[in-house]
Amino acid sequence: MTFAPRHSGAAFLPLHGEGKTPSIKKALDAYIDSEKALDVQANGDIVEIIETAYDRAAKTLALLIHRASPSASDPAYRKKARAAAGKKPLTKFTIRNTVRNKGEEPSVSAHLVIREKNVKLGKYRAVLEEIPGINMAVVRQIMAKALFDYTFEFAKKGKQETTYTTVKAEGLKSETMESALKKGEIDYVTLVRQAKPDFVDAHGIFVPRTETMMLKVTQQITPVNFKGLMSALFTKAKAAGWEQFNIDISLDDKRTKTVKLDKEQDAKELLFVRSEQVAFDKELSQCAPSLSQPIVIKATALASKA
User: Fold this and answer.
1) Are both 35 and 120 inside the same structural domain?
2) Residues 257 and 286 in one domain
3) CA 261, CA 246: separation in Å to the nearest integer?
4) Are 143 and 48 in contact (CB under 8 A)?
5) In degrees to the nearest 10, what's the CA dihedral of 116, 117, 121, 125?
6) Which residue, 86, 111, 116, 248, has most beta carbons within 10 Å?
7) Within a 10 A sphere around the Cβ of 227, how many other Cβ atoms?
8) How many other β-carbons are positioned within 10 Å of the β-carbon of residue 87?
9) Among candidates 57, 56, 58, 36, which has minimal Cα distance to 47?
10) What are phi and psi of 230, to 5 degrees?
């Protein structure tokens, strides 16, 4: 993540500041206290930053984020019936319905841990717990609003000016396709370009947007032949007017990843962002009421990787 002053010449705010020193944490805490550290999604879900904590020893700033779903239906649980050997159960299964109490909302939580040790000025390593509906885009948006409201002064040409801090989030592209293909495999390659169908009328009712071609991979692409095969495919596709290329790869952790390239990129230089799985000794709540130290410790270890 990158935190930088809006105006040149202003100070870069630290993650944590003693006393009256402005900081990222103080900006977030002020927004949380005002109950504005949230974003309402199109489906009515509410993503909200609930808590922050700075660890002096680990030098990390941890955030707890909740996603509440007020419009979600109450879950029902099915249980298959069991009967003695040779007998049929009277019912195939039973259903148990749950009813929420007044004011309750189905919720999940995620943690964001930012490591204070800079990659360079204003830029930090950060790890976000992967939870459906809580992504870096919406978390960054909430943080940006909090920092926009948290103004501070700086001297410019002998005059006091007011500014604020901006925040950007960019995935750390650390995984190579060759490494992923040692245990994973490419399933599909999708080509995208501007559509120009000749049957569309000229009255502006139907406007062509994009044209897509999906190619199924029927033979194994290995770390050895990946660069040659993909470079040849992309070269021919670019010549035919295709502008974007998506590679769907099944990874060894039973996940799938879509890696996107544009026409300016080369398959030989392909890197992508990959999630890492971590294990815990005890089962964790799907919605933490406060920062979970086991999760924060694991995320800190990931953020500390070279």
Assistant:
1) yes
2) no
3) 6
4) no
5) -70
6) 111
7) 16
8) 7
9) 36
10) -70, -40
Q: Specify the 3-state DSSP secondary structure of 33.
A: helix
φ and ψ at residue 43, rounded to 5 degrees: -90, 5
Count of domains forming the chain: 2
Dig out the tokens for 94 from the structure: 């039973």
The boundaries of the domain holding residue 245 are 175-272
Q: Would the pLDDT of 165 be above 90?
A: yes
Pairwise CA distance, residues 272 & 177, whole Å: 8
Answer yes or no: do 56 and 159 share one domain. Answer: yes
First to last CA, the chain: 16
On whether residue 232 sits in a domain, the answer given is yes
Is residue 84 situated within a structural domain?
Answer: no
Residue 137 near residue 92, CB atoms below 8 Å: no
295 and 163, same structural domain?
yes
Give a yes or no: residue 103 inside a domain: no
**DSSP reduced 3-state for 306:** coil
Residues 263-299 have pLDDT tens digits of: 666 666 566 676 788 889 999 999 999 999 999 999 9
Residues 193 and 297 in one domain: no
Supply 175's token pair.
């995984």
Whole-angstrom Cα distance, residue 196 to residue 206?
Answer: 12
**Mean pLDDT over residues 184-188, rounded?**
91
Counts of helices then strands in the chain (DSSP H, E):
5, 17
Question: How far apart are the C-alpha atoms of 231 and 189, rounded to whole Å?
Answer: 13
Any domain includes 184: yes
Kind and range of the H or E run holding 199: none
Contact call for residues 260 and 246 (beta carbons, < 8 A): yes
Looking at the structure, tell me whether residues 59 and 204 fall in a common domain.
Answer: no
Q: What are phi and psi of 276, to 5 degrees?
A: -120, 135
What confidence score (pLDDT) does residue 267 get?
63
Amino acid present at 237: A
Q: In which residue are the tokens 């002998």 written?
A: 158
Same domain, 115 and 23: yes
Q: What distance in Å separates the CA atoms of residue 272 and residue 285, rounded to the nearest whole number?
A: 30
Do residues 190 and 245 share a domain? Answer: yes
